[in-house]
Amino acid sequence: MPRSTTSPQTSQLSNTLLARHRAEELASALPPLLVAAERVAATVAQGVHGRRRVGLGETFWQFRRYQPGDAPSMIDWRQSAKTQPVYVRENEWEAAQSVWLWRDRSASMDFRSAAGLPTKRERADLLTLATAVLLARGGERVALLNSGVRPDHGKTAIDRIARLMTDPRAAAAPDPLPRVEPLPRHAQTVLFGDLLSPLSEIHTTVAGLTGRGLRGHLVQILDPAEETLPYDGRVDFRGMEGEQNLLVPRVEAVREAYRERLKAQQDGLAALARTAGWSFAVHRTDRSPQSALLTLWGAMAMEAV
Predict the structure, then answer these.
(1) CB 101 within 8 A of CB 143
(2) How far apart are CA 275 and CA 268, in angstroms?
(3) Which of 8, 113, 124, 237 lies 20 to 30 Å from 150, alpha-carbon distance?
């Protein structure tokens, strides 16, 4: 076996260049994604009213650094006097008005059945950012779930979420469901994904978030072929997340059983969402993202009443 002539330094340089190229690819996708998200949000905003907000509460939640746009009355001078940065005091009602967004970044989300369609990941990214834009414009605080970043408002929140979504270190994730983490009571969360994991696993996630006082919304994003299974004849289905390939001699023979299995999954999702007091909606990638966002916004408005 011949020995490699590649030095460790060359290999390290090659890895660095590949990482930089990947980062540039992700960064280059940001402006079109942000523009598209702004357009979707603007279209939806024309036909809806803002979410109702509850009154001010007095329960302290946290201190955070002062940011441009914060009212001077929010500054906690006693806390600020202890350290160099200026801090504002956030009460629990502000946390309760926060919305935490999450989108599935597992490998199955890269699927599309036709070249003219977006991948499920692309649609999830668009809806996530468009939802953030719409919320931020309405004065809500918004953040990405599992990002480790607290919710923010206005353009600062949108820019931060957009950067996080295109960070090469967070470009993909193996888990098709979010981690349950401590969040402020009575906040809201929105989960975008294909939601094809076992119902028991989804139930555990929803129950964990609901147990922390969160209200939520499930948005299942599917490629049209995943709903209709339009193929005929002998088809070799290849797993995208390590599953074994499946060779089906006659797809038309299993189409009805497949559709029944998908319907059972969706019925199960609707049932567990209903039990938790959440909403559930299905969106296909061959349909308008505006329609999905309008449905979601209506459900969120009902939660805020």
Answers:
(1) yes
(2) 11
(3) 124
